[in-house]
Amino acid sequence: MKANEILCKVCGDDQGSIFSGLAGEHLERLEREKIVRHYGRGESVFYEGEEVAAIYQVCSGLLKLFKTGRRKEELVIRLLGPGDVTGYRALLAGEPYAATAEAGEPSTVCAISKETFLGLLRRSPELSLSLLSKMAREMRHSEDQMVAMAQESVRQRTARLLLFLHGGQVGKLEKYKPGEPVEVPLLHKEMAEMIGTTPETFSRTLHALARRGIIRVTKAKIFIENPAALETISPVSLT
Length: 239
Known about the structure:
Elements: E1 4-5, H1 24-33, E2 35-39, E3 44-46, E4 54-68, E5 74-80, E6 85-86, H2 88-93, E7 100-113, H3 114-123, H4 125-151, H5 154-168, E8 182-184, H6 188-194, H7 199-211, E9 215-217, E10 222-224, H8 227-233
Antiparallel strand pairs: 1-2, 2-7, 3-7, 4-5, 4-6, 4-7, 8-10, 9-10
């Protein structure tokens, strides 16, 4: 693991974090015992099947979670940004990490050891409730995805995914200004896999949206020009 320890903001100051309710000795322990590292694009934070030693909170940047398919291909399942936490489900279940976490861009990540996290959970009702709330939201998101795969067209699923990437990008939704394009940081093949379609069908769907001026497509990037138009296509928002 290539990473350099650096300084980071106080985790409890991030209102999007499950640790935002910590105070006093609990927050002091978190700040004292966490390890902050910087990862370059493409570097792995942890690997699928690896024994859990810590959970990780994104301080800045973007992490890509993916599983390895039967043909050794990468299947992207989620993107994580500032305030997002990963690894806690495997830790609580006593299982290995279920996916690999890789930096999609230069990222700063806080590692919180298994012992520290479990100790804070036992002593802080606020943290326990915050974690339960996060797990409930993620369960609803998974249920929405299952319904989408069963009932929605590829066009609708594409719109939902683009909205999710737009809003789920970790802190970038509130920075959006009307008329300012928002970059989507995934390859077309990765996005096609996320919505259960072929790259060819996904590409045709993108070009249809581009002809309407809703998005702008380049060789490696997608720019969302009109999020509001995507909302009219997608029946349910994923934000």
